Amino acid sequence: MRTSVLLALSLAVALAATVIYIGKKSTGEKSADEIGLLRQEVATLREEVDGLRKAEETRKRAADSLNGFTADGRLVGPAEIMAQLQALRAQQQSAQTALASNLMEITLDRGSDAWARGDYKKAMKLLLPLAESGDAVAQHRIGVMYVLGQGVEKDSAKAIEWYAKAAEQGQAESQHGLGLRLLWGDGADKDPQKAAAWLTTAANQGVADSATWLGDMYFTGNGVAQDPVEGYKWLLLAKDKFNINHRNGATLQQFAAQLTPQQLAEAQQRARDFVPQRTGPEDF
């Protein structure tokens, strides 16, 4: 840029000088005043060219020793340049991360819409890349589709793989699904202790389905130490899920009858004190 300016000014000087020469040599029509003005302009242009040339030389020497200038021509050192470069890189990385996040959210929304419409093939096509890249909600939904055979053959073992990935990231519904697979031995060996651990984690996040299964496990001592008070607490927290998961006709009153009045009061107090803490991403 600076070289171009110098060249342009040099050409202007030459052109002005030529005009003067031609005017004097061929036409003789230029007045002395006009020629004097042209000469002054030429002299001024020459001074500006010399000034720019000297400034350019100064900048080059400074660049060799101090590595550059700011936009306003102020000399800067290597540390300041590196700081500015790092700031620009951070801004670029932030913008790229935000863009990638937005694209993932859009794809997740499209996948969820396809799943809701029953277009499981399209849902799988959209959600699988997200699941493979680590999105916990997509991983959970892929697990559900393998459990139910939606767009794929039923495969509980594959469902467990995806549930486990999402569960480790705190996705509560996957923690519940993984706990049930381990409780039932569906796609993996039965492991009541691990099942209870995952169901507890999910129930603490507010998954009512997990609460009702935990209630049963505490009453029977399956995978946990038998504790009817804790069991009744979880059954109370299950609310309407209790009836859904107890289709054998068992009632909440039948469980309550197994407790003393003191135990019943304790269980009710624990249920009142319970506050779910959602720590992972919610399913769509």
Describe the structure in your own words.
- Among the domains are: 2-63; 203-284, no CATH class.
- Helix 1 packs antiparallel against helix 2 (32-66).
- It is an all-alpha fold.
- The radius of gyration is 39 Å and the shape is elongated.
- It is built from 13 helices and no strands.
Concise structural overview:
With 284 residues, the chain is an all-alpha fold. Helix content is 75%, strand content 0%.
* Rounded radius of gyration (Å): 39 Å
The amount of beta strand, in percent, is under 5%
Cα distance spanning the termini = 56 Å
> Structural class of the secondary elements?
mainly alpha
Ranges where pLDDT stays below 50 over 5 or more residues in a row are 2-9, 18-30
Give the total of beta strands: 0
Q: What characteristics describe this protein?
A:
284 residues
Describe the SSE topology.
Layout: H1 2-27, H2 32-66, H3 78-117, H4 120-132, H5 136-148, H6 156-168, H7 172-184, H8 192-204, H9 208-220, H10 228-238, H11 241-245, H12 252-256, H13 261-273
